[in-house]
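Handout, page 2. Input:
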Amino acid sequence: MSAQSPPGTADPIESPHLAAGDVARVWVKHLTSLLLPVNALAFLFSGPHAWYIAPLFMLPVVGAFVLDDGDRVEQRQPTEALPAWPFDALVYLLAGLQLLAIVGIARMFAVQSVFSVDMVVMITVVGGSSGFSIITAHELIHRRKPWERNLGRLLLCTVLQEHFFTEHLRGHHVRVGTPEDPATARFGEDYQSFYLRTVPAQFRSAWKLEKKRLGDEQMSNLDPRMLGNRIVHGLAVGWGLAFWVGAAAGLAAFVAFVLQAFFSSRLLEAVNYFEHWGLMREGSRVRPEDSWDTHSWFTYYGLTGLSRHADHHYEQTRPFQQLRVYEDVPMLPSGYVGMVDMVMTKNADFQELATEELRRCGLGPFRDGVDVGSADGSAAPDTVGWLGRWRALPATVRVPVAAAGFLTAVTAGAAWLGEASLPFASSLLWNAWILLAFVIVFRVVNRIEQRETGPVVAWAGGLTLLVVLGTLSERLLGWLA
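Output:
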């Protein structure tokens, strides 16, 4: 092990020179990171779509889950002789694609309605890509060149998260793994509780850090020095961009901008949640074992090195292509795409697996050999109030009531905004048919998946069925008209 290698890593692959073909073979793998942004742009610039066509753009997202859930891993150490410029060019390209996506939102939703399937699909497809853009911004704000850091800040403005620049660099990296860090999830804390705690706490922390930078943490918000507050600048640019989109393209575009920003925030905090869940730092020096890692091939190449989070905290200015693999650090149950789904929808499963890993590594609450049992972050059922009474109802009552309420709200909203082309009763029936078509498709997908054909095949079959149902129903509607 070389003197420069941190504990728990193998020596980097050293070579005085790499042939262009060797560099290209590494670089091409990182082009996997274009999957989600290019899919989002294809969705935005090919729309508006018929209600049965928009969901087709979910298939690449399913593909990302499949790639990330596979057995393929990447554990090779980086090659020190890799030139930086092709990887920097990829980062700049990803930044440009995110800025182009904002133009695409304005373009499509200038002519598409708020209450449309396009809007629902946009939340996942474009919001997911915007969440990925935070990874690109994260890479840029850790750079030393001011223009690169400002480009990262601009990307954060497109998702209304510019305060992340201040809190992440001057807050999280300093306090990670301590009770003072709002972005470190505690042992036994579930995702929803973490989200509700961390979002306002990170903003408050960033606000205090900026006041401290300006000279006085206790200064009034009306102090003239606050004009130099970067958080204020970020709010002005981010929300200014949102209202500019709304003024240029209308209400639907403004709603789409805000929704993609909200979904990206959910993704960001899901990642923050599992990157340090249950870990407690000892001493002032951040160590590799204060972060969770994964060896997922797709997370490494498709999410620009994010899988090697331990090395990022150990040496935060290392570019993504040079991040190293560590031994003896806690390992996530899957790659990042699968982890986001797990912590959001199956949080108890995540906590059980993560607790066993911490116990195996002797980290977090098990550092001193004390077995604290299994974590159960699932909230106890609410048995009081209207929410508790609603949950107590049988599914045979809740599902029809919820569906009826949803359909009525959507139909009324479209009528109120002047988006409906049919009378209210006819619109209600039409929306009910669309909802029923999706229910049928989801059931078909579930049936196909039970035959162990794989999610891509299942979703391809289900979406094909959706296109058939949509085409036939559109023709029938036209005939009746």
